[in-house]
Amino acid sequence: MNKIKISAVSYTNTKPFIDGIERSEVKNQIDLSLDIPSDCAQKLISNQVDIGLIPVAAFPQVPNANIIGSYCIGSVGAVNSVFIFSDVPVQEIKTLKLDPQSRTSNNLAKVLLKFHFKVEVEFVSDQDAKTDGMVLIGDRTFGRKDDFAYAYDMGEEWMKFTGLPFLYAAWIANKTIPQEFIAEFDEALKLGLAHRKELLQQLPSVPNFDLDDYLFHKLDFELTLEKRQAMELFLGYIQQL
Ligand SMILES: C=C(O[C@@H]1C=C(C(=O)O)C=C[C@H]1O)C(=O)O
């Protein structure tokens, strides 16, 4: 049987899932690659993989997109790894650098600035540009909050804006995947989440960052109905940008 090709996020947020796959027989049915989120999305869009843990902002670009399983990368309020870092208060931001590794959080920044903070901002892709602030996601944000005058946690701001949790990335397929495989894959993800304590013992500690709190309390991996509603709402806002 051909292996199912999967691209997953290469950040710490996905390590419990990878650990669960490694612990399970299902790994023998998978050809796994770890990529930055923007590449996970690109690989799924261009059919280089069958399933990706991809930024939900890219969902509309995926042919035959369907969410599989019961797990995701989400948060209920603050997530502590998706930020707008800035030198000035948000109301004074005029220019903002986007994160080339992101698809969801770049759009989330645009949505929050326009509809929640109600400020008009110019968005810049050039990483060398001098701007009032920047979007930064993933491990590169760990312990960085104090390096900037202002740090806005976008999971927290989204919750203030909508009263909903947020869905950053979901396991999305670009074709019909056999139900039997999905069930086995989902069990592996569940197993990985159940072994987070052991995983934490293997991970090197990060200065000024509480990894235990991050993997147990900030990230929320359950793909709930509310998170799906948040995704629908978010995609609707993106269309109004
Ligand atoms: C919580 C996070 O969620 C992520 C944010 C993503 C994005 O902005 O496109 C994509 C995948 C997730 O890794 C994070 O990376 O810190």
TrEMBL record:
The keyword Cell membrane does not apply. It comes from the Bacteria. Its EC number is 4.2.1.151. It catalyses: chorismate = 3-[(1-carboxyvinyl)-oxy]benzoate + H2O. Keywords: Lyase, Menaquinone biosynthesis. Pfam families: VitK2_biosynth (PF02621). Pathway: Quinol/quinone metabolism; menaquinone biosynthesis. Coiled coil: none annotated. CDD domains: PBP2_Sco4506. Belongs to the MqnA/MqnD family. MqnA subfamily. Catalyzes the dehydration of chorismate into 3-[(1-carboxyvinyl)oxy]benzoate, a step in the biosynthesis of menaquinone (MK, vitamin K2). PANTHER family: CHORISMATE DEHYDRATASE. HAMAP family: MqnA (MF_00995). This is Chorismate dehydratase.
